[in-house]
């Protein structure tokens, strides 16, 4: 595949993913109300985008006109963005210590007061439509900047997503890349038991999207797939279906109720060691 | 400006059409809902006039995305659908997000109150005024006639906030030959003594009829066209209300549920204005009778005869 990562870059991204995984669990220990399982399935996606030179951004000027737009629709499941944004310089790392305490802007569900967040998140089914409007606006300006949007698989039950899916295809928004964090679990059960929308690949293909499928935890595959999807301009919107594991590496991994389960503090202490060594996989 | 009959949507859309010629940062979105002037806009600006189809949730979301990219957006649909089908999109992406981001999205809802008189409760809007007024950061305008609708254009471009324009579907006669007092938010069309009819939307015309009838009986009641329900001048309203002994509110919305009547009652209480307030509006139920608008008003207890009775008491 084109855009193959160098061995050095691959190792660097893996190390970052490990650090983000650790930090996400530490954030959850500080703020147990955070949705940790959902925030662990998209770690590698965030790492590839922010550390893998896939996203144009300026931490000192988060609204820089030349940035790529990244909309995070599955707000609850993006606590793993907090350490990344801090590490990239959007805000001080010390802010991570203050999560969900009075005066901090880091809440259990991220709001756009956090530098680096484009839109309001957490109420599901909004991000893709808003991102489609941004992509249309970019096209109209002639800038053609990329607009990326992260949606959870459970969120696909929201009908507004399908309005947007048809809209983006009809208008040929090929500067729009949808990433589906397909961890296969909703709030109360496996997604297929709640409302079986499979096969998602065939559906999106039929709806006129360019579809990519990839293991969302395998950075060696994920990074080039995201790179290819993002850069492709063939008159169709693109979607990367990232197959992921909810709660990866913890005792609630793949549990049907993992969305609402917590990882207890003593487990975090066992999993995240002092030198940040990889404890899973 | 003028007194002839015209639809509010044509008055505003004509202005939008002219502005779109010079301002390339204007988008017009419709949820597959038309108007004669819209045909011109669609033909001349195909890239900036988008029919999102019958998909109001996406209408709001796409409008939000465009506004985040710096565009002024007009979004157009039937009143109950552009407010209630997509209320959470309006709340989250327009009302909440505009606390942080500048979002100039102008929602044009056609079909205020009973204006689709033959279409029944799905197409009639008695809740929209209250629920849109409820949202922080969202301006609400409910004009009675087309000069006001036309005057909203400059405000729409200048005020970088979400707005809801509640328009009648039918042509109504103009009420203004001079400038519309948009900043005041209301206009005292007829000064009176004792009683003032304060109406919003189409009932302003009914109020004028009632006032003319009462005038022939020697009872001079005031008539106010209240169109700017979030952006009115509070001192001017307090002064107006203070000049009357009794106020009768008139609106095609559910009575006592957060519309004009609630605004006036709360305002009078807050300001300590010693005025009696009677409220006339739509009783809290859905009805399926087919009848003309004025007949529907009578059936629901807010018609001309009921206004006259209330003013005579």
UniProtKB/TrEMBL annotation, chain A:
<dbReference type="InterPro" id="IPR029061">
    <property type="entry name" value="THDP-binding"/>
</dbReference>
<dbReference type="InterPro" id="IPR005474">
    <property type="entry name" value="Transketolase_N"/>
</dbReference>
<protein>
    <submittedName>
        <fullName>Transketolase</fullName>
    </submittedName>
</protein>
<feature type="domain" description="Transketolase N-terminal">
    <location>
        <begin position="51"/>
        <end position="272"/>
    </location>
</feature>
<dbReference type="Pfam" id="PF00456">
    <property type="entry name" value="Transketolase_N"/>
</dbReference>
Automatic annotation (TrEMBL), chain B:
<dbReference type="InterPro" id="IPR009014">
    <property type="entry name" value="Transketo_C/PFOR_II"/>
</dbReference>
<protein>
    <submittedName>
        <fullName>Transketolase</fullName>
    </submittedName>
</protein>
<dbReference type="InterPro" id="IPR005475">
    <property type="entry name" value="Transketolase-like_Pyr-bd"/>
</dbReference>
<dbReference type="InterPro" id="IPR033248">
    <property type="entry name" value="Transketolase_C"/>
</dbReference>
<dbReference type="Pfam" id="PF02780">
    <property type="entry name" value="Transketolase_C"/>
</dbReference>
<feature type="domain" description="Transketolase-like pyrimidine-binding">
    <location>
        <begin position="6"/>
        <end position="174"/>
    </location>
</feature>
<dbReference type="InterPro" id="IPR051157">
    <property type="entry name" value="PDH/Transketolase"/>
</dbReference>
<dbReference type="InterPro" id="IPR029061">
    <property type="entry name" value="THDP-binding"/>
</dbReference>
<dbReference type="Pfam" id="PF02779">
    <property type="entry name" value="Transket_pyr"/>
</dbReference>
């Amino acid at each position: 595949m084109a855009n193959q990562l160098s061995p050095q870059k691959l190792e660097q991204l893996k190390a970052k993913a490990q650090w983000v995984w650790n930090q996400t669990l530490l954030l959850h220990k500080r703020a147990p109300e955070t949705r940790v399982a959902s925030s662990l399935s998209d770690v590698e996606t965030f790492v590839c985008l922010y550390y893998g030179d896939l996203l144009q951004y300026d931490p000192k000027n988060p609204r820089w006109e030349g940035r790529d737009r990244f909309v995070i629709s599955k707000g609850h499941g993006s606590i793993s963005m907090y350490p990344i944004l801090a590490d990239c310089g959007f805000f001080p790392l010390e802010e991570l210590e203050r999560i969900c305490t009075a005066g901090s802007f880091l809440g259990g569900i991220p709001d756009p007061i956090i530098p680096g967040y484009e839109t309001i998140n957490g109420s599901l089914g909004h991000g893709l439509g808003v991102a489609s409007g941004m992509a249309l606006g970019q096209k109209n300006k002639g800038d053609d900047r990329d607009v990326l949007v992260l949606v959870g698989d459970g969120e696909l039950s929201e009908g507004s997503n399908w309005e947007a899916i048809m809209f983006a295809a009809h208008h040929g928004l090929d500067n729009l890349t949808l990433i589906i964090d397909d961890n296969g679990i909703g709030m109360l059960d496996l997604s297929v038991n709640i409302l079986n929308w499979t096969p998602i690949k065939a559906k999106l293909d039929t709806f006129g999207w360019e579809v990519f499928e990839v293991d969302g935890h395998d950075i060696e595959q994920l990074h080039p797939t995201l790179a290819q999807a993002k850069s492709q301009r063939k008159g169709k919107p693109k979607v990367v279906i990232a197959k992921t594991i909810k709660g990866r590496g913890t005792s609630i991994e793949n549990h049907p109720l993992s969305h609402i389960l917590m990882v207890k503090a003593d487990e975090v202490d066992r999993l995240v060691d002092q030198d940040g060594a990889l404890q899973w996989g | 400006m003028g007194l002839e009959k015209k639809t509010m949507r044509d008055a505003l859309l004509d202005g939008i059409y002219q502005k779109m010629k010079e301002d390339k940062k204007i988008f017009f979105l419709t949820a597959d809902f038309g108007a004669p002037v819209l045909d011109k806009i669609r033909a001349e600006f195909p890239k900036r006039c988008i029919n999102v189809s019958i998909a109001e949730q996406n209408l709001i979301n796409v409008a939000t995305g465009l506004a985040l990219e710096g565009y002024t957006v007009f979004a157009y649909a039937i009143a109950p659908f552009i407010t209630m089908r997509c209320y959470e999109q309006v709340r989250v992406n327009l009302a909440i997000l505009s606390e942080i981001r500048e979002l100039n999205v102008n929602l044009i809802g056609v079909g205020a109150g009973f204006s689709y008189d033959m279409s029944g409760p799905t197409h009639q809007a008695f809740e929209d005024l209250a629920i849109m007024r409820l949202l922080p950061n969202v301006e609400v305008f409910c004009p009675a006639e087309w000069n006001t609708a036309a005057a909203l254009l400059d405000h729409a471009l200048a005020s970088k906030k979400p707005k809801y324009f509640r328009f009648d579907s039918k042509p109504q006669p103009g009420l203004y030959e001079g400038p519309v007092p948009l900043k005041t938010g209301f206009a005292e069309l007829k000064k009176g003594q004792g009683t003032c009819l304060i109406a919003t939307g189409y009932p302003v015309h009914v109020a004028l009829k009632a006032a003319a009838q009462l005038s022939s009986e020697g009872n001079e009641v005031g008539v106010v066209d209240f169109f700017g329900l979030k952006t009115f001048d509070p001192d001017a309203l307090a002064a107006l209300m203070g000049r009357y002994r009794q106020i009768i509110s008139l609106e095609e919305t559910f009575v006592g549920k957060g519309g004009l009547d609630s605004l006036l009652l709360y305002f009078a209480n807050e300001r300590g204005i010693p005025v009696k307030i009677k409220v006339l509006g739509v009783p809290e139920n859905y009805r399926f009778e087919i009848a003309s608008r004025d007949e529907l008003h009578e059936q629901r207890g807010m018609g001309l005869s009921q206004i006259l009775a209330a003013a005579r008491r």
